[in-house]
Amino acid sequence: MSIHEKYMRLALENARAAKGQTAPNPLVGSVIVNEGRIVGIGAHLKPGEPHAEIHALRMAGEHARGGTIYVTLEPCSHHGRTGPCAEAVARAGLARVVVAAPDPNPLVAGRGIKILRDAGIEVIEGVLREESERMNEVFNRYIVSKRPFVTVKSATTLDGKIATRTSSSRWITSAEAREDVHRLRHESGAILVGVQTILHDDSQLNTRLPDGRNPLRVVLDSKLRIPEDARVITDGEAPTWIFTGSHADPAKRQRLEEAGVRVFETTGSERVNLEQVLDMLGSSEISSLLVEGGGQVIASFVEQGLADKLVLYMAPKLVGGKDAPTFLEGLGIADMNDAIGLTGLRAEPLGPDLKFEAYFPKG
Ligand code: AOF
Ligand code: ZN
């Protein structure tokens, strides 16, 4: 491992430590090294608070002068909630800046690097770039599209079933896999299901982890069939938003709103318009959305090219049955040559189960 990779790895580790608390901002870490000694370390912890480089510069003080700063993301050039880091780095008299990935934020996008080079500072780009980009897959999608990064999550048997032929589904996967799901919820800005899932399971859609934070709960319910005593309405664990189509009962809508739920009517169709849902979430700075089902809702996201990533837990169990459901319903693909090709497939054991992660083709 090169010396640059060694320090960049430390910066990445620091950045990652804040996973789940920086949204909609990226995860960013920074390390300052002078004459072979680490003189400053920083991470971005929360929107509105200083960027990683600023924490590291403050720690380094005068020891920054003449040193090298490692940053996992191109230093910013804009006046946002905080000042431009590229200028702060230049002022502190650093000799060299090592950057992992460029900042795709249209307000930055290369301008940070330019400020540094114009100030006569040596800039080395691309050290552990892929790792930084993967760490910020959510931010990278949100900051250019202003829509959340959409992760579809499901849990199946080894023959791909999400329930038996009689709809029995509890529990398919192990406690280890279920804990991982709660970590995913903790890291997500919002969690989304169709009303069918609420009718079937009365799901709470909360994070059951010590110190876990609950995502915003979103229910797609074109005709407002949700029971008024559903737990997502009465338990007060987290805000709940319901999206309907254009044919929802106004009296029921009013009662739900009086119970503290926000109800949004999407337009153009009796069905819920998913693009409008994503736009609304994005405009509320929700940068990541976890779609947990059911099979029809997942199929709608996939068919419309709105899913970014699949997370699938598979248990070494078989239930069989041609009527036992899978996580992807809808009409389905007719010709195998048209199958949806996922990329970047990774698998990891979780207790007795396997966790798969893969990416949908870019829509
Ligand atoms: C960095 N280092 O640690 C972070 C950066 O609203 P602000 O002022 O916090 O700006 C947020 C934007 O700044 C964010 O969208 C991204 O482009 C950049 N975030 N940049 O150099 C950091 N968090
Ligand atoms: Zn900055």
TrEMBL record:
<comment type="pathway">
    <text>Cofactor biosynthesis; riboflavin biosynthesis; 5-amino-6-(D-ribitylamino)uracil from GTP: step 2/4.</text>
</comment>
<comment type="similarity">
    <text>In the C-terminal section; belongs to the HTP reductase family.</text>
</comment>
<comment type="pathway">
    <text>Cofactor biosynthesis; riboflavin biosynthesis; 5-amino-6-(D-ribitylamino)uracil from GTP: step 3/4.</text>
</comment>
<comment type="similarity">
    <text>In the N-terminal section; belongs to the cytidine and deoxycytidylate deaminase family.</text>
</comment>
<dbReference type="Pfam" id="PF00383">
    <property type="entry name" value="dCMP_cyt_deam_1"/>
</dbReference>
<feature type="domain" description="CMP/dCMP-type deaminase">
    <location>
        <begin position="2"/>
        <end position="124"/>
    </location>
</feature>
<dbReference type="InterPro" id="IPR016192">
    <property type="entry name" value="APOBEC/CMP_deaminase_Zn-bd"/>
</dbReference>
<dbReference type="InterPro" id="IPR016193">
    <property type="entry name" value="Cytidine_deaminase-like"/>
</dbReference>
<dbReference type="InterPro" id="IPR002125">
    <property type="entry name" value="CMP_dCMP_dom"/>
</dbReference>
<dbReference type="InterPro" id="IPR004794">
    <property type="entry name" value="Eubact_RibD"/>
</dbReference>
<keyword id="KW-0686">Riboflavin biosynthesis</keyword>
<dbReference type="GO" id="GO:0008703">
    <property type="term" value="F:5-amino-6-(5-phosphoribosylamino)uracil reductase activity"/>
</dbReference>
<keyword id="KW-0511">Multifunctional enzyme</keyword>
<dbReference type="InterPro" id="IPR024072">
    <property type="entry name" value="DHFR-like_dom_sf"/>
</dbReference>
<keyword id="KW-0862">Zinc</keyword>
<protein>
    <recommendedName>
        <fullName>Riboflavin biosynthesis protein RibD</fullName>
        <ecNumber>3.5.4.26</ecNumber>
        <ecNumber>1.1.1.193</ecNumber>
    </recommendedName>
</protein>
<keyword id="KW-0479">Metal-binding</keyword>
<dbReference type="GO" id="GO:0008835">
    <property type="term" value="F:diaminohydroxyphosphoribosylaminopyrimidine deaminase activity"/>
</dbReference>
<keyword id="KW-0521">NADP</keyword>
<dbReference type="InterPro" id="IPR011549">
    <property type="entry name" value="RibD_C"/>
</dbReference>
<dbReference type="Pfam" id="PF01872">
    <property type="entry name" value="RibD_C"/>
</dbReference>
<comment type="function">
    <text>Converts 2,5-diamino-6-(ribosylamino)-4(3h)-pyrimidinone 5'-phosphate into 5-amino-6-(ribosylamino)-2,4(1h,3h)-pyrimidinedione 5'-phosphate.</text>
</comment>
<dbReference type="InterPro" id="IPR002734">
    <property type="entry name" value="RibDG_C"/>
</dbReference>
<keyword id="KW-0560">Oxidoreductase</keyword>
<dbReference type="InterPro" id="IPR050765">
    <property type="entry name" value="Riboflavin_Biosynth_HTPR"/>
</dbReference>
<keyword id="KW-0378">Hydrolase</keyword>
